[in-house]
Amino acid sequence: ETGVTQSPTHLIKTRGQQVTLRCSSQSGHNTVSWYQQALGQGPQFIFQYYREEENGRGNFPPRFSGLQFPNYSSELNVNALELDDSALYLCASSLDYPWTGAETQYFGPGTRLLVL
Amino acid sequence: SQQGEEDPQALSIQEGENATMNCSYKTSINNLQWYRQNSGRGLVHLILIRSNEREKHSGRLRVTLDTSKKSSSLLITASRAADTASYFCATDAGDYKLSFGAGTTVTVRA
Description:
The structure holds 2 protein chains of 2 kinds.
Chain A: E1 5-7, E2 10-13, E3 19-24, E4 31-37, E5 44-50, E6 53-57, E7 64-68, E8 73-78, E9 87-94, E10 106-107, E11 111-115
Parallel strand pairs in A: 2-11
Antiparallel strand pairs in A: 1-3, 3-8, 4-5, 4-9, 5-6, 7-8, 9-10, 9-11
Chain B: E1 5-7, E2 10-14, E3 19-24, E4 31-37, E5 43-50, E6 55-58, E7 61-66, E8 71-76, E9 85-92, E10 98-100, E11 104-109
Parallel strand pairs in B: 2-11
Antiparallel strand pairs in B: 1-3, 3-8, 4-5, 4-9, 6-7, 7-8, 9-10, 9-11
C-alpha cells in the first residue's frame, strides 16, 4: 500500500466525451504526477503539479488538463476523448518539489479507461 | 517515445532460480529506478540507484548501473511465485518526470 488512491478503478466512455479522473495523494506530498500507460507499454508522463501549479508537461495535447487541490487531491481531465486515450492512468505523489535526483514516487493503483 | 528499453521483453524461470533483466537508456541521468507492476495495476517502487553509484542491494534485489554504457541490470535472486510481475526501469534526468521503458514480464513457475 502506497497511501495513494485513485477513483474510479474502471471507466467506459464514448469517443468525444469528457472524463475526470481523481487521485488522493499521501498527506504532505506536494507533488503529483500523472502518467498514461497503454496496454503492453511503459507509463508515459503527462504532467506534474507542485503546490497547485503545473510544473512540467509531457508530449500530450491541451485537451489533457489537470488540477491539484490544497487537500492533496488532484484531477486529470481529458476532453474530446479519442479511441487512443484508452489506457491505464496512474497518478504518483512525492514528498516535495523534488528533483534533487533522489525522490521516490508513490503510485496509485490506476484508473483503467476504455473509450469506445 | 521512451527513454529506457528493457531486455528481455519476457522471461520465464523456475522458482528458486535467479532472474536478470537489463535496461538501456539514451540520455544522462540523475538516477535510475526500478518498479514492479502486478497485473496491470499500480507501480511499486523497488530500488533507486544514483548516477554516482555502481551497485545497490535491497533484500533479494541487486541493481547495477554503468553510466558509461548507459545501462542497468536488475537481478532477483531465489525467485518466488510472488515475483511474477512486469518490471520497469525509469530514468530521472533531473527534470520533472520519470521516463519508463516498455518493461520485462517475468513469470516464475512453481
